[in-house]
Amino acid sequence: FLNIEIIDEAIEKNRQIEFSYCDYGTDKKLHPKLNSDGNVRRYLINPYQMVATNGRYYLIGNYEKYDNLSHYRVDKIKDIKFLETPAKPQRKIKGLEHGLNLPEHMAEHVYMFSGESERVTLRAQKFIVNDLVDWFGKGVTFSDETEETICAHIKVNTKAMRYWALQYAPYVTVLSPRSLAEEIKNDLKKSLEKYEDELYG
Questions:
Q1: 159-182 pLDDT, tens digit each
Q2: C-alpha to C-alpha distances, 71 to 77, 112, 146, 184, 189, nearest whole angstrom
Q3: Could you give the count of Cα atoms lying within 13 Å of 51 in the half-sphere of its Cβ?
Q4: Mean of the per-residue pLDDT values for the chain?
Q5: What pLDDT, in 10s, does the model give residues 60-119?
Q6: 88: nearest Cα among 72, 69, 116, 104
Q7: Residue range 18-45: average pLDDT?
Q8: Which residues neighbour 77 within 8 Å (Cβ) at sequence distance 6 or greater?
Q9: How many C-beta atoms lie closer than 10 Å to residue 4's C-beta?
Q10: Please, is 94 exposed, middle or buried when counting C-beta atoms within 10 Å of its C-beta (0-12, 13-18, 19+)?
Q11: CA proximity to 172, closest of 120, 119, 124, 126
């Protein structure tokens, strides 16, 4: 709750924040990320929005040393500090020249992965059209409808689409970009090999 209060205040007052960011270890405890020298890494962030998705709170902001957006799980933020330095204007962030369109951003980043979005085309079983609209919003467009399948065209973060396509692998096939389709194909091949090794050794 302290994290949320400080982030809210920083967004409202257009100020920067600084924190350490953690990952879970095998002991099921949060441990701060470290620099190459072994010291705790500190993140200087320009905060723009806080959102709730998939049952978790995320901070949408800009890591000061870069010019793009990043996402941070609020529950993984530790030792947060409110700074008096002004936050970087959104117009200086790649893709935010006209401000943050939150519904569009959320539709493109369904798992809150950072990175750029691309146009993705996939062929899907028609019975998951509801799922496609639920996940990616009304910006998804459809074409090439047959009795059982349909092509969907989505602007989406490619890391998120890779993850989503594996989740829905029995029902969808990514057609383009070709590089993404190849990555998913390799993921599925490796998964099959692991199952065969474990089950039939």
A1: 999 999 999 999 999 999 999 999
A2: 11, 6, 38, 23, 30
A3: 20
A4: 92
A5: 999 998 999 999 999 999 999 999 999 999 999 988 888 888 888 888 888 788 888 899
A6: 69
A7: 93
A8: 3, 19, 20, 21, 22, 59
A9: 15
A10: exposed
A11: 124
By the 8 A CB rule, do 74 and 45 touch? Answer: no
159: left (phi over 0), alpha (psi -120 to 50) or beta: alpha
Question: Hey, CA dihedral for 90, 63, 87, 20, is it positive or negative?
Answer: positive
Give alpha helix (H) positions in 2-108. Answer: 2-13, 102-108
| Residue percentage of the chain with pLDDT more than 70 | 100
Look up the pTM and report it: 0.72
The answer to whether 45 touches 64, Cβ cutoff 8 Å, is yes
Determine how many CB atoms are found less than 10 A away from the CB of residue 132: 19
The amino acid present at 36, given as its one-letter code, is S
Instruction: Classify 87 as helix, strand or coil.
Output: coil
